[in-house]
Amino acid sequence: QGQLVESGGGLVQPGGSLTLSCIASPRRFSSLAMAWFRQAPGKEREFVAVINWRGDLLDYADFVQGRFTISRDNAKSTLYLQMNSLKPEDTAAYYCAQDSLFDRVRAGVGEYWGQGTQVTVSS
Fold this sequence. Notes:
The protein is mostly beta strands. The protein has one helix at 102-106, and strands spanning 4-7, 10-12, 18-24, 33-39, 46-51, 58-60, 68-73, 78-83, 92-99, 112-113, 117-121. It is globular, with a radius of gyration of 13 Å.
């Protein structure tokens, strides 16, 4: 608990797909809620998706509109964000966060955060 490392970002054309990963410390991972946030230049950080410890309670931001899927593999201590139909407005640094409380990590006040991975959607 406490070390989060995101990967999988990059440059993709509009309409393309990317899968982000967030590898966490194995200690207590399976009991923690996890979330993805993003922050574009000059904008505030915004919520993207959240998943509970068991993976059966999910929530997404309205702008996702069925394009993104959050998932987790507790055996691998890894959180994922599958992103399809990417748009230029999805360009941002994407961060994962964790907390023992679902509502707290959903609200953006999770206890631990990663350093982010950059996603750029451009032709």
